[in-house]
Amino acid sequence: MRLIILILLVYLGYRALKLWVRQSLTRGDAGAQPTSREIDDIMTKCPACEIYFPRRDGVQHTVGGRDLNFCSSECRDHYLDHHEN
Ligand SMILES: [Zn+2]
């Protein structure tokens, strides 16, 4: 019975060690490989104020069949005020 407990402890210790090694390796690679979140962050230029911002954080609006991406709804309104016929 004591042998089984010993084997179990060794096994759990081995698993914990493996997990720790994997976590420290993942942490080391984090800087080199882009995460999926970073790939989603496509930088785009706001047509109104001409600053660059992550497209997913912006406001999309279709003008004359073209999809425009604005950094904020204020910029969208400003752009539409000056470009609408
Ligand atoms: Zn803007």
Total helical elements? 3
Return the domain count: 2
- Give the N-terminus to C-terminus distance in angstroms: 86 Å
| SSE string | HHEEEEH
Which structural class fits the helix and strand makeup?
A: alpha+beta
Strand content is 15-25%
Strand order of the largest sheet: 1-2
* Shape assignment: rod-shaped
Attribute tags:
single chain; 85 residues; alpha+beta; 2 domains; two-stranded antiparallel sheet; 4 strands; rod-shaped; binds zinc ion
What can you see in these coordinates?
The protein has two domains: 1-33; 35-85, no CATH class. The protein contains three helices and four strands. With 85 residues, the chain is of the alpha+beta class. The structure holds zinc ion. Zinc ion (ZN) is lined by residues 46, 48-49, 51, 70-72, 75.
Give a summary of the structure in a few sentences.
This protein is α+β, with helices and mostly antiparallel strands and 85 residues long. The chain contains three helices and four strands; from the N terminus they run ααββββα. The protein has two domains: 1-33; 35-85, no CATH class.
Produce the secondary structure layout:
Elements: H1 2-29, H2 36-40, E1 43-45, E2 52-54, E3 59-63, E4 66-70, H3 73-83
Antiparallel strand pairs: 1-2, 3-4
Zinc ion (ZN) binds next to loops.
